[in-house]
Amino acid sequence: MQSKTVLSSIICGLMLSSGSAIASDLKQGGTLTVPIIGTGFVENYNPYTSKDLLHGVMFEPLMVFNNMTGKTEWRLAKSAEYSDDLKTIKLTLRDGLTWSDGSPLTAKDVAYSFTMTKENGAFDQRGIWTDGNLISIEATNDTTVEFKLNQADSTFIWNLEKYHIIPEKVWSKVSDLTTFTNPNPIGSGPMTEVKYIKTQQMELCRNPNYYLEGLPHLDCITYRSYNDNSQIQPALMKGEIDWGSNFIADIDNTFVAASPENHHYWYPANDAIHLYVNTKEAPFSDLELRKALSMALDREAIVDIAAYGYPTVNFNAGGIGELYSTYIDADVTAKYKDLTTYNPDKANQMLDAAGYVDKSGDGFRQTKDGKRIEFDIEVVNGWTDWIQVVQMVTEYFEEVGIKANVKTVDWAVYDSSLKDSKYKMSINWSLVATHPILAYQDYYSSSRIGKTWHGGHGVHSPEIDALIDGFGKTNDTAEQADIIKQLQVFSAENLPFIPLFSNPTWFQYNSSKIVGWPNAENPYVQPVWYDGGKRVLIINNLHLK
């Protein structure tokens, strides 16, 4: 067994980095303006029920596993160490941490922030309690928290960055945390002070007691609400927005050309985008139908036409895309390539052979009991690029006699449909994480059912749970690589989601007033606004020009 110091270094990176551009000569002040697609803002500062507005802004993560650099960016925590048997994690906080009101932030707050999610299961975002492996979380002194596990799990630590650290003195006194709106919020992130909130705009300003001296350089962040991407595009062009994380059509001509010196974008590889299929309902329970639907899609045309060529076509049926390109098994991709190759003739043959034929003569196939196969594909209202993608998908399905409809829904409906398996088919992303094993946990671990958007498809088993759990019980890289290959084979053979493409990381920025942005020349982090950990690294690097 390797020493705990070496093992911890392998798992965590253990490279002390603030991820921040602390320099005395950088200008202080200024306001960053960002767009949010939605119906407006309400006075809710609960990070678990306010979508993704507050993590990394009002609430600081313990650490950030930076998939762009391979480093662990330590935030509230300064280190983490596994025991030799991989059953105990000792997490050490920075000294002298405080909340934004100046009161101490201690290990008791951290322990409470995790134990609270056991009683409030909707907040247990990574399912750390569900599978029963986590025994306890204890603050052993003011700066140390110990996580004790029943069984070895070298992946457990990767979950910790996703939980919000909250003040026990406030939250422990609330009877129903699921409806708690956290008025007069106390936070630990760079921007904690609510300057104002209006229906279409909200502004958060500098934490007066931020733990990183001299940061943030900026004074405030202004959130502006927009109905959809089409409203954001002209706002970006006019310079009303500094940081965009949305699809922009024909970006070189519509955004960059308006001010080539200041309007920029960088689209590194991101998550795999799939059509998630609810296999618990007929006819989607039929694997042959799922295969035929996959083969009916011309992915290259969808990317070129509906997505303006920005994504990368995903011909890998194994469940992962370009974000994890070094883990994609070429043999698996080649073996199952026919599943992702556009072949409507073969799709028609498979549907005929499976007994799905057009008995009524209306051009659409029926099930064996005579019911027309018709279903909705859910997509969020305002997500114009994905709406176009889904529209093209329905047209390709119609070419093989399958009737599908575009169904645009509000975020709340989309969220609950995916988590509660209330969809027939839905377009959604896959987990962006430190390692693809976490994406497979999200897809298949029984403990994730009902807690994630990606586990409601119905393809689960004790055997696949054991395979996934086995990854964390070993530190043998060859064994871990074999598990990842087996999971790719399992995904291809069961096809609970139909791969489409690897999304680009949507990232546009305006450098006329604010600089310090990540880009291809300085790729210090993947530029994802919707990931709180990555967001805080960028916020702390930005400053006035």
From TrEMBL:
<comment type="similarity">
    <text>Belongs to the bacterial solute-binding protein 5 family.</text>
</comment>
<dbReference type="InterPro" id="IPR039424">
    <property type="entry name" value="SBP_5"/>
</dbReference>
<dbReference type="InterPro" id="IPR030678">
    <property type="entry name" value="Peptide/Ni-bd"/>
</dbReference>
<feature type="signal peptide">
    <location>
        <begin position="1"/>
        <end position="23"/>
    </location>
</feature>
<dbReference type="GO" id="GO:0015833">
    <property type="term" value="P:peptide transport"/>
</dbReference>
<keyword id="KW-0732">Signal</keyword>
<keyword id="KW-0813">Transport</keyword>
<dbReference type="Pfam" id="PF00496">
    <property type="entry name" value="SBP_bac_5"/>
</dbReference>
<dbReference type="GO" id="GO:1904680">
    <property type="term" value="F:peptide transmembrane transporter activity"/>
</dbReference>
<feature type="domain" description="Solute-binding protein family 5">
    <location>
        <begin position="75"/>
        <end position="447"/>
    </location>
</feature>
<dbReference type="GO" id="GO:0043190">
    <property type="term" value="C:ATP-binding cassette (ABC) transporter complex"/>
</dbReference>
<dbReference type="InterPro" id="IPR000914">
    <property type="entry name" value="SBP_5_dom"/>
</dbReference>
<protein>
    <submittedName>
        <fullName>Periplasmic oligopeptide-binding protein OppA</fullName>
    </submittedName>
</protein>
<dbReference type="GO" id="GO:0030288">
    <property type="term" value="C:outer membrane-bounded periplasmic space"/>
</dbReference>
